[in-house]
What we know:
Low-confidence stretches: 1-60
Oligomer: single chain
Strand content: under 5%
Strand order of the largest sheet: 1-2
Radius of gyration: 21 Å
Shape: globular
Order of helices and strands: HHHHHHHHHHHHHEEHHHH
Amino acid sequence: MRKIIRSILLPLCISITLALPVACGEAVKPEAENNSATTVTAVPVSYAAPEATAPTDVQTSGLPVPELRRWEKQMVKYGKKWGPTLNPAESDAGKRQNNAYYDALYVYYRIMDYTGETEPWLTYAGWARHAWIEERYGRPEYNMVGYHRFSLGMLEDFRRGHPTADAEHPVPGNTPLTPDDFVRIRDLGSFAQPFYFVEEYCGSCSNISRELAYSIVATVVSERAGLPRVNHNDFGTGSEPRLQTYVRWAGRHLEQWRNASYEKRGYQPDESYHYMQPFMTGLTMKALIDFYEWEVENGRDPDAYWEDPTPDGSWPTIVEALGDFCNWLYSDATVRAGGGTPKMYVGERMWDEAFAGFRYADRYTPHEGETSDVVEAAPDLNLLIAPAYAWVWRQTGNARFRTQGDAIFAAGVRNGSPDRGGKQFNQQYFYGFDYVRWRSGE
Length: 442
C-alpha cells in the first residue's frame, strides 16, 4: 500500500513539494528496540569541509527561520494534546511512558521557556518526570536500557530547584533530585560505562552509536549538575578521562558511516551492522556538540579529546569533522545495495527531495527490517538531524549549511507527524529548540 501511495504522490510532490506538506509525508518508521519566538535557549565526495565564509555573515544574514510559525503552532497544539496523556490519574503506565519517550520532561520545560507560560507545561513536565524517571528508571535503582537514558530533562528540573517535586500541587512520588541521581544516570544501566562496550558492541563500532551518544550527554549533564569529571575509564587505558574515550569512539562512528569503513581497523566484523541511519548520526553529532560547548564554556579546548579517525588526517577538529559529515549526508550519501535492497533504490540520495526527508536507513538490514519503508523517507526524524547544520553554520559562517539545515528543518515541520503520538511529538522538539536558537543567532 505504501508503494502505491508513493507512486501516486511522487509526481505531485516533485512539482509542489512546498505546497502540500502533509500529503507528501511518510508514515512513521519506529526505531528498533534492540539495539518570543526565538528566545530559548551536491559536492564531490571529499573529506574537506566547504570553505568558510566570513563569520559576520552569521550575524547579518537576516533570513527568517523557515516554517517557524508552523513549528510554534504545532508545539502548543500537540503539546496540549499529548501532555494530558501523561497524567497518572488518567492513563496507564504503558501509555504514559510511550508518550514520555524522547525526554518529554525536557521538551515541556523548553516549551515553558519558549512560550513564557508556566502552565500547563510545568504540570506536564511533572507527569513526564514521574512516568519516565520515577517509574521507567525505577528511581533510585535506575534500571534502564541504553537507548532510554535521557538526562537533559533531569538537569532542567534540578537546576530550576525541582519544581516538579515542590510545586503547589506536586505529582505524588516526585521527590527532589540530588547529585546522587546524576551519578546514577551517568553510571547505572546498560552501556552506562566504558567497560560495557565490548565484543560485538565495542565502543568503536557504530552499531552502538545511540547508546554511546546518550552516554556522552549523560556524562556532560553530570558535570553540569556539579559532579567532577571522571578521570578514568575502566577500559584498559587507566587515567584517560571517560569523555575522552567516548569522544574518540564517536568520531570513529562518523567515519564509518561516512566511508562505509565498517570492517576496517577492527570496527565491526558483523556485516549485518554495516548500515547508516541519518537520525542516529544526528544523535551522535548533537552529543559531540554538547560536549564541545561544555568545554568551551569552561575555557577548555574541545579538540584536546578529539582523535582524527580518517586515514588521511583530514578531520583534525570536531568542527571540520561535523562540517564535512553534514555536507556529505545531505549531498552525497546514497542508498546502498546491502541486505537485498531493491535496485530501484540503490544509488538514490539519502536526502529524498520529493518527500523532503532523510531516508530511514541506507540499506536493508535484519535489524531494521527488509521492507521498502526502511529505505524510504522518514521526515518525522528530520529535527533530530537539523540542529547540527545550524551549529556548523554558526561555527563556520558557511551559508551552505544554513541552506541545507533550513531545508531539513522546514521539511520536518511540514511533513513530520507530531499528531501521531507523544514520541513523535517529542522527537520534533527534543532538539528542535537548538536549531531555532542557533539558526536565529541567539
